[in-house]
Amino acid sequence: MSKETARRSKAERKEDKTGSNNANMDNNLNMEDKTQEYQEQYAAMVKSTPELPDLVIYQILQLLSTRYAIRASILSKQWERVWSLIPLLDFDEEEQHGDHVFQHDKFEYFVTNCLRRHEKDHKKEYLDKFRLRTRYYGYENLINQCLSFAIWKNVKQLDLSLYTTHNLSYPLYNLPHTVLNAKSLTSLNLESVAISWGWGFQHVRLPSLKSMSLKEVLVDEFAFVKLISGCPSIESLSIDSCGGLSRVDVSSSSLKSLEVIRGFTEYELTVKAANLESFRLGDSVHHVGGNDDFNERRGTIIETPKLRSCEFIGYWQTGFSLNAPKLSEATIILGDRADSYFNTFPHNPKMRNFLGQFDCSGKMSLHVMDAEVFIWLNY
Q: Residues 6 or more apart from 350 whose CB is under 8 A from it?
């Protein structure tokens, strides 16, 4: 190759490189122009798009779970402002998926940050409802933080449900007595917690409480008596598979609806409620033994002059007494026999006495799972 040709090739390469650099610069400028143009178009679009009324956004966010409502609140400052006005917080760890421990850590981080966002709004001093459903690994920090926040916000409906994995077991979380003295509470739902009579337990004052549900709650008799007596306005009470009790006395002049699910527990039940209108009693359907001694330990005495509706589910009892002169509707569902009790006493008068307690002036429904019982009743 001659020197002239080499110089010409070098000059051409230099020119091509310069042209390429200039083209890249032009492309970059064009991209910057386009980016700025897109930004201006987006800003114009947002500015020209009419805002939804706060009431509409409020109703939309109320239909969403707390997790998705928070995600929706990042759409704009308006959505964020409206979200902070919603008096409802619902945290459910089951909404997340994945490894339990890692999932729980994420859930705790999410709840903590959500509470911090709400704490910034000092003007809103109430919550209509606060619900927390989470796994319990023996650590109380998150639960204590949530309950303190809810009480501070004068919550009306409090729903606390704790559960553990199948292969892990921890002592039940002991409910702080501040919850049992929250004057703003109108509804209290508790699951898998403990209420114990001990140090610092002085009294229960829930003057506004209308509804209470206790499911798988460990509660001793002294604490239960204090709990019922501390709710002068209660109208609805549900006791489901609670432990730690040998005797339950429900005495309330305001109570209108009562549900007691004893399961396999053996405590005696006495109900004296002058204004009770609806009563439901559930026992173990597959009753083991069928003997009088077991039935007497599970004795039931119901004195309710205004009772209208009654439902019994389980195995018939010898220690059952129902005084309800205005009973107009009764449903009795009897479980199957677990031994030869009916073969020994096919015409047992105690069965007749049990059914005779349901002196109903209106509709009475009887469901039996044992064919021999059905034949005997029609004898």
A: 292, 318
